[in-house]
Amino acid sequence: MRKKKILIVDDDTNITLSISFVLKKEGYTVIVAVDGEEAIKKAKEELPHLIVLDIMLPKINGFEVHKHLKANAQTSEIYTIMLTAKENEKDKSLAEDLGVSAYMTKPFNIETLLSEIKKGAEDGGK
Amino acid sequence: MTSKKIKEAKGEQKFAAASEAAVKEAEAGGKEWTKTFDAIADFVFIQDKDFKFVKVNKVFCDALKKKPEDLIGKKCYEILHKSDKPWPNCPLAKTLKDKRSHTEEVNDPNIGVPLLINTSPLFDKKGEVTGIVHIAKDITERKQAEKDREKVLQDMNERVKELNCLYGLSKLVEKSDTLVEEIFQGMVELLPPAWQYPDITCAKIAFEDKEFKTEGFKTSKWKQSADIKVHGERVGIIEVYYLEEKPKTDEGPFLKQERKLIDAIAERLGRITERKQAEKELQKREEFNWALFNYNPIETIVVDLEGRVVKSNLAKRKFGGRLSNIGDTMYKDYAGKHKIDMHAELMKCIKLNRLKKFPEQKYNDKILSITIAPFSDGAIITSEDITERKQLEDALRKSEQWFSTTLKSIGDAVIATDTKSNVIFLNSIAEFLTGWKQEEAIGKPLNKVFNIINEKTGKPAENPVKRVLREGVIVGLANHTVLIAKDGIKRPIADSGAPIKDDKRKVIGAVIVFRDITERKKAEERKSEFLSNVSHALRTPLTSIKSFTEILLRYKDVNLVEQRRFLATINKETNRLTQLINELLDLDKMEHDELEWKSVPCDILNIVQNSINVLDPLIKEKNITFKFNLPSQNLIANGNEDKLKDVIINLIGNAIKFTPSKGEIRITIEKKKETIEVSIADTGIGIPKDELTNIFERFNRLDNSINRKVTGTGLGLYICKQIIEKHEGKIWAESSGSKGTKFIFVLPEA
Known about the structure:
The structure holds two protein chains of two kinds.
Chain A: E1 5-9, H1 13-25, E2 29-33, H2 36-46, E3 50-53, H3 62-71, E4 79-84, H4 89-97, E5 102-105, H5 110-124
Parallel strand pairs in A: 1-2, 1-3, 3-4, 4-5
Helix pairs in contact in A: 2-3
Chain B: H1 3-8, H2 10-28, H3 31-39, E1 43-48, E2 53-56, H4 58-64, H5 68-71, H6 76-80, H7 91-98, E3 102-106, E4 115-123, E5 129-138, H8 140-174, H9 180-194, E6 201-207, E7 210-213, E8 222-230, E9 233-242, H10 256-294, E10 299-304, E11 309-312, H11 314-319, H12 342-352, E12 356-363, E13 366-375, E14 378-385, H13 387-409, E15 413-417, E16 423-426, H14 428-434, H15 438-441, H16 446-449, E17 451-454, H17 464-471, E18 475-484, E19 490-501, E20 507-516, H18 518-554, H19 560-591, E21 600-603, H20 604-622, E22 625-629, E23 636-639, H21 641-658, E24 664-672, E25 675-681, H22 705-709, H23 716-726, E26 730-735, E27 741-748
Parallel strand pairs in B: 22-24
Antiparallel strand pairs in B: 1-2, 1-5, 3-4, 4-5, 6-7, 6-9, 8-9, 10-11, 10-14, 12-13, 13-14, 15-16, 15-20, 17-18, 18-19, 19-20, 21-23, 24-25, 25-27, 26-27
Helix pairs in contact in B: 2-3, 8-9, 8-10, 18-19, 19-23, 20-21, 21-23
């Protein structure tokens, strides 16, 4: 079975480093983007199975990135997990409205993130 | 019978003389006697023992229209009384019997005229009665006169009785305190004695709804009555009854005089009643007037035309002082405490017969309101002590002023309404917030002036006054209300309403108090944003710490190099967390003035030098060149050295962070007037102009890629600003776009 490809979008290098480390250990192929622009570009190029997306990103924020990808036929079906340090109801309901697959807050449990990624990668994986 | 007595017996004298003459003539038997006999004007005749006429005189014969020869020898009763027996009352029989003279009045209808008859015996020598001289006189006229006299007497008696009756009535009325009822009862008892037949007379007076009767009162068909009228209206009746039939006279059995009497009494009773009623009215009026005068709470004095006190009322007497002494001359007999000559004023009023008021007269320490009202016999002076009222009025005015000023200067907006929720008052804050001036708002419905909507729905919100007036309760602060001013400006407000109650707890209006909470809302938003930012700032290092810790725990096969790298990250992020927490605590203290400043003279140059020493490893790491423009002498500022060092480290640290490797940082310290100016200029990417002030706000980190790579709490510049401002200095940033940034702060020189 081909390795599932996962795009991690976060401007905090500690986050991208740690999640990348874990996912590689778990057998996923990992791509990293540090701002919204790069995220859209890499998603279109790489067509990952799943995206772990921060909201507060330089240049284009996570919601806009998601909207953009949803609007594109190639990327519209990608399973998106929002991972943010902003914990408020407004963002959470906005994420739901935009059809985000899962919403998680920082700091997170690796186990929880992994089970969510496993679920998403298998369901949404093509 | 002595001659003297005879003389006294007037009418009978003649008979006696005639009798004597007759005897003499009979004895003498002369012709002269016969002549004399015939000349006697009375009827004279002589009878024998058997009543037979022996001799008759001419007058007698003429009266009987007979000749003497027709009568002589005939029996007198046959002729005179037309009877065959002697007249029972005939004095002749008595004289025959007792041989004495007798005088009788005879009234025989057969004779037709009343007669006074004198019979005298004639004796023979043996002393036996041989005949009787009979002298009779026609007493018709005398009888008539007697009857007339008797009638007059009786009439007089009746008049006396009537007079008695009227007199009795007068006596009854005489006493002024006699009740009408007593008069009527007394009157009814006076009635029967005044009538002809008192014993069979009953009387009754009916007056209004009362009846007054004589003892054993009964009615009969023989009745006389008269109406009692008061002011022409029938209010009662007097009735007199005879209980037995009596001969008819003028008015049935009643006399004309009795009619007059009963009418007179009825009229009199009517007048008495009128008078009594008038007296009662007068008395009532007098009592009323007296009470009005005496119990009037306003001190009142009546003076005569000379201004002397005639009387004073209770209030005046209670007020005391010599002013109430009867006979004193008003305002003159006392040491004048009035400012004007009141006596002269009084006399002028009386003279001109003109009322005058002295509304606010100072008298000693009192304020009086005096009125002088003249009348025909003098004047009435009223004086009202209005001191207290004046004081109350003053106090009320002051209180109103105070209240009005308080309302005007109160920090919140205040609107008062009446019970119909129409505006009656707006203070200046309310005027400002609603955009309505009080003059134009008064009388307008509150909804128009106080136009509020719900912040969330945008629909009109319920006016608190509605509930206040409906339920009479205080309606507390309501949130999420927006006031739309007259000019359309919307402001979030907090309002509350309360009923205005009078002293009987009756709701007479409502008052709403509200305030513009724009600032509070902003503050709340800032606080909420701050918390959100703090939370975010805390979560970021926590996430790294937790992630790497979990990795180390989860995977046993992490190589040593990686393990060390992860642990170093954990350590670094823990330090960052600690720094953040310390900064937050410092900030909180600073914002609440709790941070204690040790203010000492600080050598600024020295502090800069020390700061650079602290940052030396970083400077070396990035190979940054420092350039200095320094003053020739030391510059001293009063302040906290540690805090100033924090500021300088923070600013130089930032400059190092944002300056690329091998870049340049210029530090300038110079004296400008009384201040020390320090500037730190980097050669980094610069800051857009519109962000230059924002960077000093809390958690305001520039959103750029370089900034993402450098760590920071977002509080550094904010803290710098707080510290510099505590030192009464200023801090700002300058940047010409992409050619670096210069941070400058100024401190007052010590």
